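Dear colleagues,

As part of the handover before I leave the project, I'm documenting each prediction I ran so the next person doesn't have to rerun anything. This entry is a single chain, and its sequence is reproduced below.
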Amino acid sequence: MIELRLEVRPSWFFQLPRHGWLDGLMRVRGGVVHRLVHAPAAEPVLVRVAQLGPDRVLFGAQAADRARAPWGIERMRLALGVDLDLEEFYERFRLDPLIGRSVRTRPGLRPHGKPSPFEALMWAICEQLIEVERAATIQRSLVWKLGRRCQSTGLRDSPAAEIIAAQPPAYLESLGLSAGRALALVRAAREVASGRVDLAAGDHERGWQRLRTIRGIGSWTLQMLALTGQGRLDQLPAGDLAYRKLVGRLLADGDPYARASEDEVVEFFAPYGEWAGLAGLHALGLAPTGLARGALRAVA
């Protein structure tokens, strides 16, 4: 077994997650992040991440193959966003009337990325039009029934595209997916498993275009894939009900029942350009604290 350690200095303010995520794949024990990932050819890599200080993050990876350990570290660096340099975003929007206060108080906010683009796509399909808790239950079922497990640690990884592609849609329905989402997931997995769609390729738009031909995969699913699995901070899931509610309130002078259209959400966040997805996360974070009301008055 090969063990590799690498100390990284984040490009911008960074803090490791303090808690594991609802899908059960990433665990935090004693402040250390643990995650099992699988390299091509289904080789497991166990990655651990610890924060040594505000500007020091230690990655460790165990793998049977010397070449796989650095691969695992690279995937988790991407998922955690440790190398994202958000200084330009901070300088441009720290005084923004809508998100400025959030940008100043949470300069290190990042999307909850996934180490595998297919995992991001699969989880986005699971999350379509349902509550977060219910989606997490489905995701945990997929991991438990079809995911890959490390015998020594008990950690699990999400199912590979090849595994999902081989499942009857009815079986995925039995795990909680609707009939339409189960069929969409199998068809998407077949596109990825066959190589017809390369989610890791630089030409993301080409893959999105092919996936969009699958019934049940629309703009929201592809934008979630882009934001959480492909590092595309310009992509905002504009059809999300949370954004439609937020922008609806802002455009309707605080009316709590107003709902914006997807196009109105896109237009509203257009000024943030290549940072629209990150700006959206900051904007959503305002609502629970009541800060959105102050922002509404500021932009009125």
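Strands lie at 2-8, 27-29, 32-39, 43-53, 56-63, 148-149, 156-157. The radius of gyration is 20 Å.

All the best with the project,
I.
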